[in-house]
Every structure is written in C-alpha cells, then in structure tokens.
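I hope you will forgive my troubling you with a question about protein structure. Could you please explain, in whatever detail you think fit, how the structure tokens follow from the sequence? Thank you for your consideration; the sequence and its tokens are set out here.
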Amino acid sequence: MKEAFDKLIREAESICILGHINPDGDCLGSTLGTRQYIMNRYPGKIPDVYLMRANEKFSFLPGFDEIIHSASEKKYGLAIVCDCASFDRLGDFAVLAENAGSVYVADHHVSNNAEYEYCTILPNASSACEVLFDLMDREYINKEAAVCFYTGIVHDTGVFRYQSTSPHTMEIAGFLMSTGIDYGWIIDDSFFTKTYAQQQVTGRVLLESRRLLNGRVLAGALNMKQMRFHDVTSRDIEGIVSMMRETRGIAASVFIYEIAANTWKVSLRSNTKSLDLAKAASAFGGGGHKMAAGCVLQGSCQDVLDKIMKELSGQLDSGGRSDNFEGTG
C-alpha cells in the first residue's frame, strides 16, 4: 500500500490528519510526524492536524502549536487517520473523515477490523508511528519528523519494554536516532518526568489500590472529586496504569477514573499473554491491544470494577466478585 499512500498524498489538493480522542504519545507522534513528512516530501503541501488538546509535555513536538482543536466543515481531498480503530474514536473530528474525498487509515490496533478502501493495519506493529514510517521514503524523514516518530514509538513500547517491540522497531529507532534527535531527553522529559501534582495523584492511587481476583489483578480508581482536589485532568494521569502494571506478582492492572457522573474511563494493562485485554474491553464496546486496552463504563466505582473483574476472571479462571473497593472516598 506504500504506492497508494504516496499517490493519494501526491494527488490531494488538501489534506487533513486525524487521530483518536485523548491523544497520547503515539497519536501525536504519528499525526505530527506524518504532517512533517508530507511537507518535506511535497513542498507547498501543508496538512491540517485536528486533535483534542493534549498534555503540554508534548509541546516540544514540531507542529504541536499548530494543531487545530475545533472541528471544521471543510471538505478535504484526503484524510489520513492515524492510530485509530474506528471513526467513532475520532470524536467531533469524525465528520472530517466522512466528508473527505479519500481516506487512508494507518493503525496497529488488533480491534481494528473495519474495512477501508485504503489502509495499512498491522496489529503486530509496535505503534502507529512504526506503521507510518514503513509507508514513507526515509530520505524525507528529517530531524523534525524523527522527533515525532521516535516519541510515538517510545510511548507505545514503554521505552522498548513491551512485547510489541521487535527487531524492526529497534532498527527504525536506530535510524531516527541517526538524524540527530536528542533521544535521551525525549525519553526523560516526555515519558518519565512528572509534575508534582502527577506524582501526588499517582501516589494516592497506588496507596489506595487493591489486589483482586486472588491477588492477580491490581485495581486503582480516581473520582472527579479527587481529581479536582489534586488539580489534574485526564491528560495528567495517562501513565498510572502502566506504573501499576510493574507490580511484581500480578497478571494485570486496572485503572479507572471518572470522566462524568457515574461514567468511568477504564484502562487495562497485562503482564501475561494468557490474557486478551482487547477481547475483555470489546465486551464493553472498547478495544485496543491484547496486552493494553480500554473502554468506558457507567455505574458506581464498585459496579464498574465488578464488571471488569467478572470479564477478567473468566480468562484468569479465578472467578468471584471484586471485593469491596474503598479507594474512592
């Protein structure tokens, strides 16, 4: 599909680039990296990137300040959809894909089983950045584009620790490093460094977390009152579930936070291939990868955890209720 990807870009009079709601490092890296590549490959073409507001820790990415945060009625010749399993995950920007003359989808989510005329969907790839990198001519990936793609790969591989990391992933990272990017700073500043509020709220979640399903699942939660108290938003807590996953002796971590009254965002991470978190999340209308997935559920904190534990217990063969979770006072 590399030829089709290039042909669509070359022939499009106008291009927009879209990604999923609540953009993370891979979403930002893939969209902004693609924008920079197109400007390098075809001088004069300046794609518009539409995304929700993202964490300011990513403000070093070239093009970050030019992201458009409000939907438009403009009809583009081509919409490139990055790191997104379905158009409903585009939020208010779905209309841009629906109205575009052509759409190209580049993704790596195993839950992306939709059929598109033009797409590259590789569930075994480490990231959307890896998928898009392989669609491009390397000679047009300069330092600015490399910063974006390297950031995305770093975040979706947990700094090359997750099992999605392959020799090819490392070969791509090596090429991106060769462009002169400050790869050490990117890792430290965008992945590991946290604000004081982020450290406080992470500590609270860990302190109030509970081991459920015979100790095999570590669960934590934050309600809206607690988030207001710590002055954090959803952009500040995206890394908590991955930190929970690093607990020795557990098979999976579950982190939920309240996004509206009795509506909870659920993040799932696994330490074992015996769990299929994408399958678990899809039971509630969500999706993702086998070892990292998410969904949105309604109900009380206890109700939501009970539903998730029931789904995971079938795979873990441990059964039972999630016990009384008291970490949301």
Q: What stands out?
A: Residues 318-323 have pLDDT under 50 and may be disordered. Residues 2-192 form a domain with the inorganic pyrophosphatase (n-terminal core) fold (CATH 3.90.1640.10).
